[in-house]
Amino acid sequence: MGVGGQQTEAAVVFSWEEVQKHCSRNDRWLVISRKVYNITQWAKRHPGGSHVIGHYAGEDATEAFTAFHPDQTFVQKFLKPLLIGELAATEPSQEGNKNAAIIQDFETLRTQVEKEGLFKAKPLFFCLHLSHILLLEALAWMMVWYWGTSWTLTLLCAVMLATSQAQAGWLQHDFGHLSVFKKSKWNHLVHKFVIGHLKGAAASWWNHLHYNHHAKPNVLSKDPDVNMSGIFVLGSVQPVEYGIKKIKHMPYNHQHQYFFLLGPPLLVPVVFNLQNLNVMISRRSWVDLAWYLSFYIRYFSCYVPLYGFFGSVALNLFSSVVYSLLMLLYHFLFQLQATSNIEKSFFNDWFSGHLNFQIEHHLFPRMPRHNYHLVAPRVRALCDKHGISYQMKTLWQGMTDVVSSLKTSGDLWLDAYLHK
């Protein structure tokens, strides 16, 4: 019974107290729809990575299982050999610290929106989105090829390239969440093209980081989006923990001031590229590496004849800095405003890849983003019913909150560093 991968009858019953004992790296049980599974040995073979599924060891994983897997019938064949029992009839379906009424209402809402077809993508929307990215790339190159490489046109070219990178980031996010095609394999294939050839990044790198983020958003030890490589501290827990441990990689009480100076030059040009190369080489993701290299082959083929090698490198670095500034604002905005949305407008939807509907995205990660605004009123009503915070802000309010939140976190770190 205790060996993962061994099939048994589901006649054995367990209490939550027993399930919660099996939450270590070498002993992992979890619960899905009241069924208890031993994933200890199988976790390493989990397609989404062992970390994602391991986050739910000793816990109920029903919500995450439903959110991440579009074809649950297919996935069941992998679960069946891992089944070791079920929760006792006297046990609640979730751990005692979860609100059963909220979960039930959310399940009802999820069932409703699925029946209404809100998980069905509109192919034309994504075709047009891809087309406008390719158009931006083409116009940027044609502009400097036809009119020359003056400083003004070069600056405009860099901004256009950064914009196309940002928009490609949102598009790869759609395919990465399996929200475009019905079949997962097509989503994975196009995801590799968009993130690899159009952005110069690895699908395996993004999958590892982003799935862990969605599994445990804002949980310090489990959400990689909270870990900013020691450059920034976020929220209210991490700065206090760093302060108590006397961790001082940076003067975090000034992070709201050096945010714009250090963040953009380091994020994409240095941190993201090193992370991508490390993941591709260490995991031998040669397909991802081929797509990654195709981005740079295409880029240098286009711009070396116009700028020379070093000029092309400089243009790429400059556009990466502009793109990094946008990404940092996006990242901190959405990371710090976990229960806030940015108001809907045509520009805000385009600018943020519809992640201005941050709450809806985290509740329905596989829902095509063009449908977030349709489910938003019902999500807000559910939150109001249960007294859950649901905030709507302007884009400017969200941006200013980024700076003020960084200052607040920095002050928390300083206080803990000096006095605890």
Automatic annotation (TrEMBL):
It is a multi-pass membrane protein. Pfam families: Cyt-b5, FA_desaturase. SMART domains: Cyt-b5. The keyword Cytoplasm does not apply. It catalyses: (8Z,11Z,14Z,17Z)-eicosatetraenoyl-CoA + 2 Fe(II)-[cytochrome b5] + O2 + 2 H(+) = (5Z,8Z,11Z,14Z,17Z)-eicosapentaenoyl-CoA + 2 Fe(III)-[cytochrome b5] + 2 H2O. Pathway: Lipid metabolism; polyunsaturated fatty acid biosynthesis. Residues 11-88 form the Cytochrome b5 heme-binding domain. GO terms for biological process: unsaturated fatty acid biosynthetic process. Keywords: Fatty acid biosynthesis, Fatty acid metabolism, Lipid biosynthesis, Lipid metabolism, Membrane, Oxidoreductase, Transmembrane, Transmembrane helix. GO terms for molecular function: acyl-CoA (8-3)-desaturase activity. The chain crosses the membrane at residues 124-147, 258-277, 289-307, 313-334. It is found in: Membrane. CDD domains: Delta6-FADS-like (cd03506). Its EC number is 1.14.19.44. GO terms for cellular component: membrane. Belongs to the fatty acid desaturase type 1 family. This is acyl-CoA (8-3)-desaturase.
